[in-house]
Design brief:
Blueprint: E1 3-8, E2 21-24, E3 32-33, E4 37-41, E5 45-47, E6 53-60, E7 66-78, E8 81-86, E9 90-93, E10 96-99, E11 104-111, E12 121-129, E13 141-153, E14 164-171, E15 175-182, E16 188-196, E17 203-213, E18 218-224, E19 235-242, E20 245-254
Parallel strand pairs: 1-13, 3-13, 5-13, 14-20
Antiparallel strand pairs: 2-4, 4-6, 6-11, 7-8, 7-10, 7-12, 9-11, 12-13, 14-15, 15-18, 16-17, 16-19, 19-20
Length: 256
Amino acid sequence: MNNSILLTAAHRYWKTVGHAAVCALMLFGSGVAGAATWEIDPVRVELSPQQQTAAIKIKNNSNQTTTIQINVVAWSQSEGKDVYASSKELLVSPPMVTIAANGEQIIRAALRRPADATGELTYRINLQELPVQPAPGFTGLQVALRIGLPVFVKPKTGKASPKMLWSVARMPGNTLRVELKNQGNAHVQVSDFALYIPGEDRAIVNESGSSYVLAGQAHEWLLKTGSSEKVSGGRLHLKAYTDAGNVDTELELGKP
């Protein structure tokens, strides 16, 4: 009996967003079937009242045919967690594609409702590879690729932008709690950040990886530090990199 696992390939926001990004599964050796490689352009979709449609190019860089099922979900957040719900407000066509080896396919997304008056709308386009039929006698792992493309729709009036409020507090067990509250009307994506003792160059903690904080929501990170004696002062220096600009500021060390 064949085993089957699903790997989710997460993409990270770079300054080149909007250009092609390669999303690939790493091979775990010869005992893996169906490890496809896709190239997607753009890696996130931005719509507006003036631009309600977008084209997305998917290129199959592998040497085998891949079939992809596509669906759309409304995207919100609650208590720092992503929440998804089925939605017909964004239409993606076609809903399923089969792309030959080294071939490509254009899919199109279209907004089916008016943009919000003052806030950003958020969705995800999920691309799910359907597992290929393994060769007779295959006993390894069957791998499928799954990608979620974020979709952001600008509001009708006013400027859509995040408003970041960072804070840091000391927790038990040599742990720092870093929180970001987004008080704006649009998302912010944090690619990485680090905390320093003011005046020093070596970070005492850092966080790498991509995290979205939607409008009106908050996200927190619990980071272990082995330098608890160094954070006994009242302030820490924060350097963060986001799609809304870099952050370089000092934070007062608060209490949980």
